[in-house]
Design goal:
4-stranded antiparallel sheet
Amino acid sequence: MVRFALESKMRPRKVWILLYLMIFFSFDCILGSLIFSKEISIQDLALQNAKQKVEIIKKRTPIYSLKLLEEMFNLAEAYRESRVTEAALYVYQELVNTYLSTFGKRLRDNEFARDATCRIIGICGPLDKGFEWFNKLVSEYEPNDITTIIEEDRIELMKNYSDFEGEPLAMFLKSEYVQHNDLFEIKQKIYETIISKYPECKLAPYLKFKLANSYRNMIKNNIKSTEAEHQRNTAVNLYNDIVQKHPDAVFPNSKTKICPIAQMRIADLFNLEGRPISNPLKAITEYNKVINTYPDIIDEKGFKLKINAYMEVLDIYTNRWGDVYTKEYKNIEKAKQIIEILLNIPNEKYLVQEWWFGSTHPECYIRLAEIENESGNIENSIIFYKKVLKEFPNVWTGKYGSDDTTSYLLVALSEILQTKDNNQDKINVCKEIISGDFDKIVKG
């Protein structure tokens, strides 16, 4: 290459530039190789050093002494904290093997042996040796006790994925423990690779669900309609693929079917509160699929999907949240039809948009009261509010998973005070509130 540069008819300046670039890249490659070799040699030297130190500890400490285990554990911890993982792993394993061969007791009977086993699992991850050591340890504990010594998410991975295919499972589990600034994008690429390379594997529908969720979550932080619409369509296609191709696939951690949840997510993606890309009519169609196809399915949070779907449609027909993009679809007659359906079945808890919870019967009476109030029928609205006060004083509603909740009793009282006219029934209720005579309110 150098000879070519010198013998060619290139201008002298270009020749020197070419030579400079060649020297620079050659030096960079050599330096990279040296650094890589240095890293390998450090790990190898540390491992050799660890083996020597373990032998020294064994020679100077009585074999049946617990002091032996303590010294080995401290040595392994020092390697681990210095991130010399191969050496740390070797010492932890030597500690556990020494304990088992010498004392012949269970791992749980000695804190150093138990903690060393947990460290091995942590270093190996939920693969190969990690599974082997995990099974040794978990066999000695009750299922509920094991969570006190190993991170719960790692246990779930090991328990729930052990019967999945090896190669796609290995790729997925490694992605769960990858640490990188662009973690979100890296996981997406890994999921896409597994789905493309192993489309028939047991993990495929679950990874499609996780991938769809990632696009769905992007929409929440995306204010650009065109990008949000693309993300919505990508997520819908993935969810729909699960519905069409994997009707019996289950979540690894609960054995709950993925398909009904995916169908509910499709509906939710067309019912985007406050977003111009919302499509309420399409959302209602998709919610009706949930209602008709999965009447008894419980979602991952413990709510019945059919009830959630009914409440989502009711919110659209009553324009519950005052959304400018759904107000034209407000339909009181259809809202009353849904309310009638819900009041003719047992009272159920519900969750809408995955953040607001309540109970169907008191919520339906509140909606009927609001409808009557908007129509100017104040006396009728007071009747429905008082029904809530009487029958559901201690039933709660609010933001799911937070302290921002309230009782339906307070909701009803608040809305009574905001009714349009000061008729006698409203005045009487207000007097009873002021006097604190709640017995009269709920009995009246």
